Amino acid sequence: MKNPLLGLIAAALLLGGCAHPSSTLPLRGTGDLGVVVERATGTLQLIESSTRTSLARIDGLGDLSHASVVFSRDQRYAYVFGRDGGLTKVDLLLQQVDKRVIQAGNSIGGAISQDGSLIAVGNYEPGGVKVFDAVSLALIADIPATPLADGSRNSRVVGVTDVPGQRFIYSLFDTGETWLLDFSQGNDPQITRFENIGNQPYDALLTPEGRYYIAGLFGENGMAKIDLWHPERGVERILEDYGRGEQKLPVYKMPHLEGWTLAGDQAFVPAVGHHQVLVLDSTTWQQTDAIDVAGQPIFVMARPDARQIWVNFAHPDNHQVQVIDSETHQIIATLEPGPAVLHMEFTARGDQLWLSVRDGGEIQVWDPYTLKQIASLPADSPSGIFFSSRAHDTGL
Amino acid sequence: MAVSVHCSRPLLLVAALLLAATTAAAPLPTTERQQQLANLLLQDCGSCHGLRMTGGLGPALTREALTDKPRDSLLATVTHGRPGTAMPGWKALLDEQDIAWLVDRLLEGAPQP
Q: How is chain A split into domains, by residue range?
């Protein structure tokens, strides 16, 4: 073989052929791939944003009622956290499950470490966090959460997030704590506990550079902020005065928080139990506005250029999506993609927005600049959409 | 309080008869509504209780988990929610028929995976 490139291609094809019955998979990258969770059937669709197509369906992932996904730093593998405690490593190139372990009875989500070597999973049952080797899925550390006062079980864990410095952070729903695990010195982590952060933290976000961890509170007003440059300063409450004295609406679905709520020097967060998106100055963390929207917000996501904020809603307003101008805070569009819009995901540079229409049985691709739908793909009760570009975002 | 000693039995009987009568007489939701409710049970209840009702942020609602739970208390929980927890009251979105139908499906072990 005279051409070294041809030799490489042939070798890659041979390798692929060894591991997969189909030796016809083309040589390719994975940077424009993603996965869509089909939650009722426990399957994933492998999607490609460049062509706006579905490449494969991968099954055998168990109960994906509430599933989230992180990616290996080479963007080859997706780690899927399932409701049934399953942790599944999916090979995007070979389009198949690589490894799967049932690590708990009931889990909520997880994170991958800064160096890509550790996977942390947050569990409801048994309440706590387990940490696994990202290659083999072998158990590395088991950190039970605080037992409840009656001793019946441990607190449920929410908002597991990776933090720079080979650390993970998460909150305890039942006992109102935040724990910071530091794996920088080895596999026996140093644990820092923040107590009394507030009542019933339901999820949390990490600002994109990894400095601030902010947990949303379900059981009381406000959010709990920790400055990870200065953990010794403890927890600071923000948004405490929001909604005080007002009757909360029944909350039919818990909102979600992630780093995508940051748009430049502003943070846009869902108001729990209100038809509003709250705006904070992300340097002072003071509230600057409250934007009236069509329902109770679930995901509040900035377009990657920070110029627009897209919002979807809880039942019974979940057929709509609203787009907010990040500068004027005006609603610039109210879209009706279809019944039960569950999740949205921008491509890394924001040229496309993918959204899942659960009860319409489709995934839609929108151009967020023209606000027009540009593609639709059939899917079985689609929920979360995750692009492999998340591999290089801290806190996602 | 003293009165109840004398009246409790007949009153209870009347109450039980009334309850039985209303339960038996409560018309079922239309077929179309039942389909909507079945989807709501699977997907929206499933958001917190799991699509297989094995629990999540909310407790498990499998038939086994509900064995010792009186139907009336389940009806009350769905209608009014449980203050201090994440369980909302559904009465703004569902009427009594809807809620009774949903609770009866849960007691039968629905939704099946």
A: 103-252, 254-336
